[in-house]
Amino acid sequence: MDNILITGASGMLGKELKKVFPNSKNLNGKKDLDLTDLNFINKNLPFNYDIIIHAAAYTNMQYNEKYPTKAYNLHSEIVPILQSKCKKLIYISAQGKDYNKVYFKSKLKGEEYSLRREEDLVIRTNIYGKGGLSKWAFTELKQNNTINGYVNSMFNAIHVKQLAECIRENLLKEKGLISVAGNYMLSKYDFIKYIAEILNLNENNIKKHYLEHDEDLVIDLKDIDYRFSLSEGMSILKSELI
Fold it and tell me: For residue 129, which of 154, 167, 161, 165 has the smallest C-alpha distance?
């Protein structure tokens, strides 16, 4: 299926989605189209897509708290507009827990809107790649700097390549709510230690640190529909970072 639009195409997941859907149309960020300007989107985004994959998101928690209107526009209020522009919407969501932060609440609202149309799909997931936490940890440890790893921040993320390929191979015809995640649970501290181990970096430079919150990114193992191993994802990450 060639008639696909990808939002957030310049992000970690978006870049992988462009590889598996090489003929897609792509919105790479605000420079292409400001997705928080809902009136403009409604008037100017054409209806001619079989599928829209809505991968655009504000992942910085502090930014979401500072600009809640932008967060809600991008994560939820835009959903009915995107639905009106395509036959099927694939909405990339978070882990589905009702936490207090704007990011999680706006994502859950986006899920609610998406699931009102029977043929649409919500994918609950959490991801990593050669950017974000992984790149930061690798860069700092390679320079022999000391970093903190959060012991009480848990997740079971998958590599963005794993998710992109799963969407192409398994999920284009799915509908409703699907969870795609790792078959494990790991703290951010242990995740960074794993990166140090596979890349032969100094694990002693990783210090245990605790966050004053309980907002983990874990998807319950019993709820996962498509599971991926950490070792496979880390093998991909290693090839990207070295």
Answer: 161
